[in-house]
Amino acid sequence: MKAPAGTSFLSSLLSSSPLLLAMFYQSAVIGVNALGIWNLYLLKREHRSFQKATLPPPFKDAISQEEFEQGASYGRDSTAFKLVDDAFDLLMSNAELFYKLPAKLYKLTSKLFNVALGSFSHSYLFSVCSDACSTLVKLPFSYYDTFVVQQKHGYNRITKRDFFLDALKYFLLRAAFLHPAQTYLIQFVVRRFGRSFPFAFFACTSCLLFLFAHVYPTLIMPLFNKFTPLNQDTLLYAKIQQLASKVHYPLQSVLIMDGSRRSSHGNAFLYGFGSNKRIVLFDTLLEQMEGKEDCIVSVLCHELGHWYYGHVTWMLVPTLFQLCGICFGARTVIFDPNMYGEFGFDDQNPLVGLDLFAQVFLNPICTLTGYLLCYVCRHFEFQADTFAVENDFGEELRHALVLVSKESKKILNPDPLYSALSHTHPPIVERIAAIDAQMLKRTKQAT
Ligand SMILES: [Zn+2]
């Protein structure tokens, strides 16, 4: 890659001081460890919260003490496993930094496949090999989580065959579409536009984000799950139609997804553009709420609340801001030869540069902005619950949340700090209290 015309203030500052020359590498070591230890601390707090868990009053009629203890036991096991998993990740990140493993793999792929250093073929093969290595290293952890931890507590439904097939399908999809597109986009845009690349890169990635949002549910999800239309002669379909027309949702079809193939957790979501919208219900949700059509419709009403207030669009604003920050932030460092040298790379490949930029600067910053996004998401969740209350589904949604928590009992007593920083959904106890307050307010207004 050609060195940029003109020298940035940051580059001249770096080249003037030998101490600052190692700034990137040291920043990465400090950033990776500080973040890793902070996340382990949060997880440890969450793990401890399951040891002193007590059944909250709103669930006393719906969940027995024995069921609750089973949930807490699952919570303890899953957080204990996550602690080991995260500690291993931290160890691996340190090993990568210490032994400069990515740079070694970078040189090895060039030799192994006999491709020119820094060429498109080399960059693509390097991405695929890095992905294959991390997938293989993480697979035993994912296997243990699914077939030991979740299996023990009755949450796993996926077969071993489907588990490995899923991992393979995801890898092949990334190798066939994500890696070539990403490699081409980064190399082409940075080499073609030089220091003006952030404008073009931002425009391209924003378009790809919108495209992916459309393609994911229509083309990718059907590769992993089966979607069947809900029988239009059922009471449930009639109630969903009634609600959709009441809130002016341009509903085209209601689909049932076989979520039970993988997990017993129930869910529902909406997708589609313009006047071509669909509702998807997990078969597990229908199972959990069998014969309780109003409860299922109340969950959909909550989802329709997200659509009504344009939450998905609102969430795009901080995402685009973040993307913009990444593009312009990356420009200040990816043309600096020092950064590549510190991590053991001999040439300046923009694909590697962006990766190193993410490691040194982006991950710590994204953790902080992630906390902010969690706060915004929680506000949206309360707003969507209020929408359901305003559409006379308060009591049913309350009941549905209790039924959902019966299935996912581990979420009843989260650690407040862990929950505030990691969960995009507020604890169910808080949501039920907010629904109760909204219903009381409506009753007072009516009398
Ligand atoms: Zn929601």
From TrEMBL:
Active site: E303, D385
The UniProt record lists the keyword Signal: no
Positions bound to Zn(2+): H302, H306, E381
Ranges of residues in domain CAAX prenyl protease 1 N-terminal: 48-226
Occurrences of domain Peptidase M48 (ranges): 235-437
GO MF annotations, alphabetized: metal ion binding; metalloendopeptidase activity
Annotated EC: 3.4.24.84
Gene Ontology CC, one term: endoplasmic reticulum membrane
Cofactor: Zn(2+)
Localisation per UniProt entry: Endoplasmic reticulum membrane
Biological function: Proteolytically removes the C-terminal three residues of farnesylated proteins.
Family: Belongs to the peptidase M48A family.
Protein name: CAAX prenyl protease
Organism name: Strigomonas culicis
Taxonomic placement: Eukaryota, Discoba, Euglenozoa, Kinetoplastea, Metakinetoplastina
